[in-house]
Design a protein that fits this description.
2 domains, single chain, D-Maltodextrin-Binding Protein, domain 2, 6-stranded mixed sheet, alpha/beta, about 240 residues
Amino acid sequence: MKEDHFKSTTLDDSASIYQPRQEQTEKQKFSEMTFKEKVSYFNDYYRLKTIVFVAIAVGIIYLAYTILNPGPKTVLHVTSINSSIDMETAEILEANFSDYLNLDKDKENVFIDTTLYLSNEDAMNEMTMASEQKLTVLFYSGEIDIFIAPEAEFARYANSGFFSKLSDQLTTEMCSYFGDSFYYTQTEEDPAKGAYGIYLKDSILYDKTGQPMENPVLGIAVNSKYTENAVDFIRYIFELTK
């Protein structure tokens, strides 16, 4: 009886557990999954790899494009704060002064930034803080060539030594012409008064309609990379001949 029971419970050699298992390929596994299982499988095994691959590919493409297709080089950077120059005038001035310099506009450009605002109040708002941080970076990196601001804001930067003494940059004839239009001050490093700015009331930038512009003043940044173009810009806006 026991022998019969043993025989009846003994698996035949052809039973499935004795058959060699066939490993499924990834493709076969994926084809048998439901949509939800496929999404879960992808997230578990491939999402991170895919993100890294795409990020690297985008970085390589962007770098290659930047190297092969560089944008125009800025040969004069003018920063005008507190709407000393309105945006429409800035765009016209960029185009006209580029023509004045005979620039190849595919390779070189003039940039006038009118987006910054500094409050003349003691309280620092977010816009003023952001503008001051950006200005600090631009000045120290030598990106700014010309700075235009209402007199009160201009004075703070002039006293801190951000501008060149104009007698060192302008011709003798220009210094004589601007004698009464110079903004004189002293800096923290140089107690002797000097001309560090020019009032814009006689320039083509001055608002002749009578709209208040808070007496804007122009200066050349002390570490400007394009001082010759900065001087030409002054000639242009005051309609002086070379």
